[in-house]
Design a protein that fits this description.
The chain is mostly helical. It has 2 helices and no strands. The chain has helices spanning 8-62, 68-142. Helix 1 (8-62) packs antiparallel against helix 2. It is rod-shaped and about 115 Å long. The two termini are 33 Å apart.
Length: 149
């Protein structure tokens, strides 16, 4: 089919296909960043739960009396747990920022894809109207009693 006889909607179709593929890729990336964020949040909650459990066990054992060495070991271990929690909070914040960036990118790509879709819809409607007019002219010409001028 020659380029000048190809409809605008057919010429625009590859552009729409590319936009749709980009949107699907953005959706996939958004899903990945959500999974990463969920996993890192779960790790953070696990660390916090472990710290709370350890603190309760320490308090419960405090009733029986603790030696200086055990008290020091507890404080060192609790300090390490708190540092690990702090580091994990940083990881969660970074994952959340990446997820928000992916979300914003997906929204922009989706908006672009929808705009292209509207253009395509307009082209198709215009082409249908033109085709309907052409068919009507052809029917009028074939109708009995129609004279050519």
């Amino acid at each position: 089919m020659a380029l000048d006889t190809m409809t605008r909607s057919k010429r625009m179709q590859p552009v729409q296909d590319v936009a749709q593929r980009r949107e699907q890729e953005a959706i996939r990336k958004l899903g990945q960043t959500q999974q990463q964020l969920d996993a890192q949040r779960a790790k953070l909650e696990e660390l916090r739960g472990y710290r709370d459990q350890y603190a309760r066990q320490f308090e419960d054992s405090g009733d029986t009396g603790l030696g200086a060495i055990r008290m020091r070991d507890y404080r060192v271990f609790l300090g390490r747990l708190n540092e690990a929690i702090h580091q994990q909070e940083t990881v969660v914040a970074q994952c959340d920022a990446r997820h928000q960036q992916s979300r914003e990118q997906w929204i922009a790509v989706r908006s672009h894809t929808r705009a292209i879709g509207k253009v395509m819809d307009n082209f198709v409607r215009q082409e249908r109207r033109q085709q309907d007019k052409q068919e009507q002219r052809e029917q009028d010409e074939r109708a009995p009693g129609h004279r050519k001028t």
